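I am writing to request your help with a piece of structural work I have in hand. I set the record out below, with my sincere thanks for your time.
___
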Amino acid sequence: MAATQAVRATGTAPRVGLRHFVDRYFYLFMSVLVAAVVVIGFSRTIGSGLLHPAVKPPVLLWVHGAVFFAWVGLFVLQSALVRVRSIRLHKTLGWYIAAFGALIPILGIAITRLMSGFEVNSLHFDPNERAAFLPIPFLDMVVFTIVFGLAILWRKRPEYHRRLILVAACGLTAAAWGRLPFYVPHLAFYYGVDALLLLGILRDLFVIRRIHPVYAWSIPTIVMLQLAAVRLMEHRPEWWLRLGRAFIGQPG
C-alpha cells in the first residue's frame, strides 16, 4: 500500500521490463512484419505481372490478389485491435477474416492451375517445369487450410488461437520471399518462412520460458513437409510430372 501511494504521489509509473514489452507487442510487430514482407516481395513483380503485363493474365489473378491482400490487412488490423483491447470488434471482424481465409486455399489451387496453363500456353513455359513446381503451392495451401482451420476451431482458446493464426500468416509469405532480390532457387522462400516461425519460438522461450505446444507440433511437421515438397520438385519423378501435367491441362 505504501509503495502504491508513493507511486501516486510522485506521478511516476513502475518501469516496464523488456519481457513485458515483448509480451504486449510481439504479435502486433509480427503482423506488421508479415505485411511488410508481402508488400515488398510482391511490389517487385506486380507491375510487370499484373498491372502492365506483356500478355494480359486471367481476371481471376486480380481476385486472388485482392483476397490475399485483404486477409493480410485484416490480420494486421486484428492484431492492433487486440493490442488496444477492442475485443468485441476483434471478434466481429474475426468472421470476415475467417471468410477471406476460407477463400484463400480455394483461389490458391484454382489460380495455380489457371496460371500454370496460362504460362505454358501463352508465355511458352516448359510444362514439365510448371508441373514440377506444383508441390510448393499445394503444400502452402494444405498447411494454411489445416492451421487456419484449427485457429478458427480454437478461437476461444487465445493462447492457441493467436499462435495458429501467426503460423498460418507466416506460411503465406513463401511466394513473397521468393520474389525478393536475394532469391536463391528452391529453398530460399522457406528459409524466410521458417525464420518468421522461429521468431515465435524465441518469443515463447523469452516470455514464458518454454515452447508452446502449437509450435512444438506444427513447426517440425511443416519443415519436414517443406523438405519433402522441395525434394519432389527437384527430383521430378515421372509419376508426379504426369499428374502435374494433367492438373494444368497439358497432354502427356
About this structure: Confidence is low (pLDDT under 50) at residues 1-15. Residues 19-237 form one domain.
